[in-house]
């Protein structure tokens, strides 16, 4: 493997067979990058891929360690009362919105090899609502969700669901600050202290399935929201820039959670948890209006 790549992404392999496995995966990904980017250059693809911190992982290894969302399938019996958005989908909203332009610029996050995307997406959605109300960014504890929501059905670093996370927050009543309960990419014993909780979670809401007009409305009315998405493909793993529009990305399954922060005429804008060197400085644009990768299958937020 190229030594510059090792240094740039802080890779260090103490066992030779592991290094060989990563070298093989890197070369296979590099071949895919060269092939795909030819299509990007000639205009037949709307997005580019590149070597990043995940480029030394085979697609199987990537899925095992980084894509661990448990699908929050809609449950008619329990979710119906939590559905929101009726009457909003035909509202008069701007043609574009980017919460970063309003000041909601949070630091790049890296979940590392802990399957904690569910915690990041819900936690950052709460941060977005606080920002909308107070015009302040208050960093909240993702680690609290990882450690403390297992009794409700999540699995720590082995994954979890958006619905389970929302139910946990409603029961626990609040979230601590990141500075008081910092992220360490491991599952630990729950150390939640209600006296240090600064956000009171009263209830939660989900959006109607496969309705991108309601997603647009809620983004304007409420703020950034958590969405589930299919991140299975190698092109997603290696995404670099542009509007992601891989025809092979099925909308029938989802396995990763991100934060929806905006949209323009052609795309949704998402924040991810794989560091600043993934995508567009930690963000992604994905084609809008076609339920690309199942982005509108399950979107939700906690009510603060």
CATH superfamily: Cysteine proteinases
Determine the N-to-C terminus distance: 48 Å
Tell me the series of helices and strands, N- to C-terminal: HHEHHEHHHEEEHEHEEEEE
Determine the strand fraction and express it as a percent band.
15-25%
Radius of gyration: 19 Å
Provide the structure class.
Answer: alpha+beta
Brief descriptors of the model:
single chain, 304 residues, alpha+beta, Cathepsin B, Chain A, 9-stranded mixed beta sheet, two-stranded antiparallel sheet, 9 helices
Characterization of this structure:
It comes from Clunio marinus. Residues 93-303 form the Peptidase C1A papain C-terminal domain. Pfam families: Inhibitor_I29 (PF08246), Peptidase_C1 (PF00112). It is a single chain. The chain is α+β, with helices and mostly antiparallel strands and 304 residues long. It has one domain: Cysteine proteinases (Cathepsin B, Chain A), CATH 3.90.70. Helix content is 31%, strand content 15%. The chain has nine helices and eleven strands. The chain has helices at 3-8, 16-41, 59-66, 76-79, 117-134, 142-148, 162-172, 212-221, 234-237; strands at 47-49, 97-98, 174-175, 199-200, 203-206, 225-229, 239-244, 256-263, 267-271, 283-287, 299-303. The strands form two sheets. Strands 1, 2, 5, 6, 7, 8, 9, 10 and 11 form a nine-stranded mixed sheet that branches. The longest helix is centred in the N-terminal third of the chain and has 26 residues, at 16-41. The protein starts with a helix and ends with a strand. The mean pLDDT is 91.
């Amino acid at each position: 493997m190229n030594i510059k790549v090792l240094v740039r992404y802080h890779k260090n392999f103490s066992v030779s067979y592991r290094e060989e496995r990563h070298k093989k995966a890197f070369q296979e990904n590099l071949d895919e990058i060269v092939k795909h980017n030819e299509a990007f250059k000639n205009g037949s693809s709307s997005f580019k891929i590149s070597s990043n911190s995940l480029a030394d992982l085979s697609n199987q290894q990537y899925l095992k360690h980084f894509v661990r969302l448990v699908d929050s399938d809609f449950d008619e019996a329990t979710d119906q009362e939590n559905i929101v958005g009726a009457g909003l989908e035909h509202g008069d909203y701007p043609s574009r919105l980017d919460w970063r332009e309003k000041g909601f610029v949070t630091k790049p996050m890296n979940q590392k090899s802990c399957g904690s995307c569910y915690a990041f997406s819900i936690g950052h959605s709460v941060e977005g609502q606080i920002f909308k109300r107070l015009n302040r960014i208050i960093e909240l504890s993702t680690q609290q969700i990882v450690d403390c929501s297992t009794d409700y059905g999540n699995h720590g670093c082995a994954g979890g669901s958006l619905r389970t996370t929302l139910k946990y927050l409603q029961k626990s009543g609040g979230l601590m600050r990141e500075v008081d309960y910092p992220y360490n990419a491991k599952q630990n014993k729950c150390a939640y202290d209600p006296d240090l909780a600064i956000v009171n979670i009263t209830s939660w809401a989900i959006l109607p399935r496969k309705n991108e007009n309601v997603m647009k409305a809620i983004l304007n009315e409420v703020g950034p929201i958590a969405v589930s998405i299919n991140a299975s493909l190698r092109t997603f793993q290696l995404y670099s820039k542009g509007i992601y529009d891989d025809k092979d990305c099925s909308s029938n399954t989802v396995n990763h959670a991100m934060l929806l922060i905006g949209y323009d005429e052609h795309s949704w804008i998402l924040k991810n948890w794989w560091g600043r060197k993934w995508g567009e400085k930690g963000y992604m644009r994905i084609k809008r209006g076609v339920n690309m990768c199942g982005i509108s299958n399950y979107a939700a937020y906690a009510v603060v």
